Amino acid sequence: MSALLLRADADGICTLTLNRPEARNALSRPMMAALQAELDRIGDDRSVRVVVLTGAGPAFCAGHDLKEVRGLDTSDYLPLFEQCSRLMMSLVHLPQPVIAKVHGIATAAGCQLVASCDLAYAADTARFATPGVNIGLFCSTPMVALSRAVPRKAAMEMLLSGQPVLAVDAVRHGLINAALPVEELDAHVAAMAATIAGKSPLTLKIGKEAFYRQLEQPLAEAYAYASRVMAENMMARDAEEGIDAFLGKREPVWCGG
């Protein structure tokens, strides 16, 4: 495990901590590679039910490492942003739900990380921004995740102004689920992660994949697709167990099949 990324596992919950506190956890190419490699491993790890993504030090993530970017050859620009885009899509395609636990700032590609996670909870002192426009570099790749997480005009205001958004407004826009006092953030995320980890892992995988696929479909196609998913889900052993447990007024015992 690279020192750029820390991993801790307990009770089906995997916590990944971005570990460049001195650089506000900026997404250098090695940092992105370390996170990508760990996500690839987690996807095949049946012991992991939920992933929590957070940052060490005073910030969640300040986006791309601009010092690194300025040192690249022009031929490296496209591979850099393709690497970042693959990372963000990996969060969406990961079978397990991913929760962002945010403190400090989440800016540019850091805000993109938050928008790409399935759930996000933040300290009420956290700030979110896509400030690329301030330095002549529009946040075009962060825009993809942001525009799928918040209403159009809220996204455009962030992208065009570059101004930070308070946590309370990030909740209102739907970028995060809740803003909490900093001393309550860890406990809240731990409780939510434990709740989700108690569900059938197969059901979570089926549901997460279906959620994102149907979003991109017209209404009739989405219903047709979701109907097929539910019919297939009904044939799973975990669905049979869950229904029987509910009818029998007992706790289900998931087998993951």
Automatic annotation (TrEMBL):
Q: Give the transmembrane region(s).
A: none
The domain of life for this entry's organism is: Bacteria
For this UniProt record, the keywords arranged alphabetically read as follows: Fatty acid metabolism, Lipid metabolism, Transit peptide
GO terms of molecular function:
hydro-lyase activity
InterPro entries for this protein: ClpP/crotonase-like_dom_sf (IPR029045), Enoyl-CoA_hydra/iso (IPR001753), Enoyl-CoA_hydra_C (IPR014748), Mitochondrial_ECH-domain (IPR052377)
Query: Quick check: keyword Lipid metabolism in the entry?
Result: yes
BP terms from Gene Ontology: fatty acid metabolic process
Whether Transit peptide counts among this entry's keywords is yes
Enumerate the PANTHER family for this protein.
ENOYL-COA HYDRATASE DOMAIN-CONTAINING PROTEIN 3, MITOCHONDRIAL, PTHR43602
Per the similarity annotation, which family is this?
Belongs to the enoyl-CoA hydratase/isomerase family.
User: What's this chain's function?
Assistant: May play a role in fatty acid biosynthesis and insulin sensitivity.
| Name of the featured protein | Enoyl-CoA hydratase domain-containing protein 3, mitochondrial
